[in-house]
Write a structure and sequence with these properties.
With 469 residues, the protein is mainly alpha-helical. Helices cover 61% and strands 4% of the residues. The strands form 3 sheets. A two-stranded antiparallel ribbon has the order 1-2. Helix 12 packs antiparallel against helix 13. 39% of the residues are buried.
Length: 469
Amino acid sequence: MTSLADITPPIALGALDGRYRPAVAPLVDHLSEAALNRARVHVEVEWLIHLTDRQVVPGVRQLTEAEIARLRAIVANFGAEDIAELAEIERETVHDVKAVEYYLKRRMPAILGEDAAQLSELVHFACTSEDINNLCYALMVKGAVQTVWLPKAEDLLDQLSGMATELADVPMLARTHGQAATPTTMGKELAVLAYRLRRQVRRIASADFLGKINGATGTYGAHVAAVPEADWPAIGNAFVTDRLGLTWNPLTTQIESHDWQAELYSDVARFNRILHNLCTDVWTYISLGYFAQVRGQGTVGSSTMPHKVNPIRFENAEANLEVSNALFDVLASTLVQSRMQRDLTDSSMQRNIGTAFGHSLLALDNVSRGLAGLDAVPAQMAADLDANWEVLGEPVQSAMRALGAQGVTGMENPYERLKELTRGRRIDGDDLREFVRGLGLPDDVEQRLLGLTPQTYIGLAPELARRYI
């Protein structure tokens, strides 16, 4: 039997790089192995420019604008040939960051001319690998979140908020504990989910992305030994904040502590869980007939039952959100721990960041496509409401309570009287109106309750749906 592992080009092992590639491809620019190497080249180049710009090392000249442009062009033009070259160097070094250093030094003669040998010594100067890697991951995750994940999440929120506004006035039977309950509107229920999701998006959008560049154990030991008169914390702070646009972490071991990552991944996981809640609720509304899947449905629903249109977008999203959260949870719990000043668990763990975001991004895509295929069915919602007049027991007994508190006689035991009327049995409008007429209510209250129907007993739901999203 032919081994599929031998087929060229290589067959993807995972679904994200296989059938789901189109939905997650934008993340490749930020969270792939190639993106990590490009980020390493970027950080190393900027560190060289930073050191020479500030003339940190005595006797070392500043780079010219042309030299700086050519150095930055290495990053801008980083592509397939560079990836292959780095892989070749790494086979010799068996060290990925050292391979980047050698890769850059190969290019110094063509860029720096007769000063190449001298200036090349500032490539990776006083750095441990983690000085480079922590900054790379901060830049990569920041790019993925701000340019890929957040825009997709915000688009979905706009879509969901639009549905909530559109359906703000459409009454619907609520089902607390799965049982018929006080009516609401479809728009208000969607607005609740939109509000919850938007709150998490605001947290994610304000996340800090921390970085450090303080040496092998965070002491600036090599820095001070080489150039003792320099203010190394200030130099590092300026590099991380001004040149790279990250947040400075002033006190670390060999590694940047990754607490910011844990905070971010917990927030994204929480967003995922709320989105999962949306999926299960919408799935249930579809099963109740409150939504019809009619728009853009040219797909096969069931391989044997031609009438079916399965809610596959929401089911697919549920599965991907669960995979994403499993990864985000282990990332958040593992990355904040390191034995003594350094162990390597974070290196392997961080290579799964792209997969975690990939499954979340895929879920966002599926939910958006699923919502786009829905049409509300107000008639089905109205039919359910009309079959559950007993939900009006709540407003009647509440009105009786208010009157009893005001001293109106005959309002005793309102809850118990409505319980006797409604629990365990269905009533219709005539039953309820007959009961209300026999209570001896003031005329204005009686008329207000007689005019109430399950469809109109929605309180401020329409206003709430519009006001807070």
